[in-house]
Write a sequence for this structure.
């Protein structure tokens, strides 16, 4: 999935006007559509580009733009005590994201991968209970059970799934890994995100993550080559690096000043839907009855998890991520 950054601690609590409220919803809807398209578009070029090299190029481009925007280099303005945390955010939010997403998409169906990309809130609930010792509510147990059932139905629905062998199932597991990674990103990064503007956090997440990917991308290029670059590949790289990794973060963060996080969370349901629709258009993939039932179960589980409850939990995901970065 592509992580949606947490709300800044300075977000205003004043009631927005009707016009700004609608504008905030539209911005989140646009961001969700752009995030959702990342999975099928990435899958579409993995036949001609190496997976690690594509991820490196994406985040090198994004970090370069953010360094220009902030007029600073990696870790510029970051307190020494926060630099290790930035490294961990880069590891989970970029390095693990690329490995799981780009390798998984080589074998997993785009439509199933897109639906799975909407599951980070579920993993956040589980991890918050384990790491932060947050008490689980009954509905959260129910939501996790429903989601697991939905994922099982979705995974087995693709035509020929039973005969595709271990690579197909490995692909589904791998595209689930970034969703867990973005949940970890959201929990680990909560304090850091509250202290720095989103361009600074994303600058270091992307730049340090690209640095981690660089040696592996070099080995991959030496072993398999740089791939075949044409106009389509360049356009998709620009889309992933600019629209999906920079522009959407600006839309999301400015929208949180106009609408509640709970409202933005529900609008983000458009993310997996947009990805599924694009997968159907690009690859001719379709969901059968089991896949549709699984998708509905996943959305029902997300609705249970994201339904606001007072008081706000200390691990508020703010969907809030991902992490969206993927």
């Amino acid at each position: 999935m592509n992580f949606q950054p947490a709300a800044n601690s300075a977000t205003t609590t004043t009631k927005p006007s009707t016009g700004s409220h609608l504008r905030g919803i539209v911005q989140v809807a646009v961001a969700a559509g752009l995030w959702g398209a990342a999975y099928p578009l990435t899958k579409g070029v993995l036949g001609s580009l190496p997976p690690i090299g594509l991820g490196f190029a994406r985040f090198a481009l994004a970090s370069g733009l953010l360094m220009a925007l902030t007029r600073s280099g990696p870790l510029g303005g970051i307190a020494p005590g926060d630099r290790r945390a930035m490294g961990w955010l880069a590891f989970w939010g970029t390095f693990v994201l690329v490995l799981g997403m780009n390798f998984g998409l080589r074998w997993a169906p785009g439509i199933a991968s897109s639906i799975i990309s909407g599951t980070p809130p579920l993993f956040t609930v589980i991890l918050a209970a384990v790491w932060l010792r947050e008490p689980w509510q009954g509905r959260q147990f129910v939501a996790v059970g429903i989601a697991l059932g939905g994922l099982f139905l979705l995974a087995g629905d693709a035509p020929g799934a039973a005969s595709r062998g271990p690579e197909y199932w490995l692909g589904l597991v791998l595209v689930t890994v970034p969703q867990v990674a973005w949940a970890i990103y959201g929990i680990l990064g909560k304090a850091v995100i509250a202290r720095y503007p989103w361009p600074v956090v994303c600058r270091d997440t992307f730049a340090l993550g690209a640095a981690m990917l660089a040696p592996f991308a070099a080995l991959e290029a030496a072993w398999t080559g740089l791939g075949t670059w044409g106009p389509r590949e360049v356009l998709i790289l620009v889309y992933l690096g600019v629209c999906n990794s920079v522009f959407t973060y600006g839309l999301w963060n400015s929208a949180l000043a106009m609408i509640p996080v709970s409202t933005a969370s529900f609008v983000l349901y458009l993310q997996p839907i947009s990805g599924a629709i694009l997968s159907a258009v690009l690859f001719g993939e379709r969901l059968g009855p089991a896949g549709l039932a699984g998708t509905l179960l996943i959305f029902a589980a997300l609705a249970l998890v994201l339904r606001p409850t007072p008081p706000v939990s200390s691990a508020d995901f703010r969907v809030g991520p991902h992490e969206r970065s993927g």
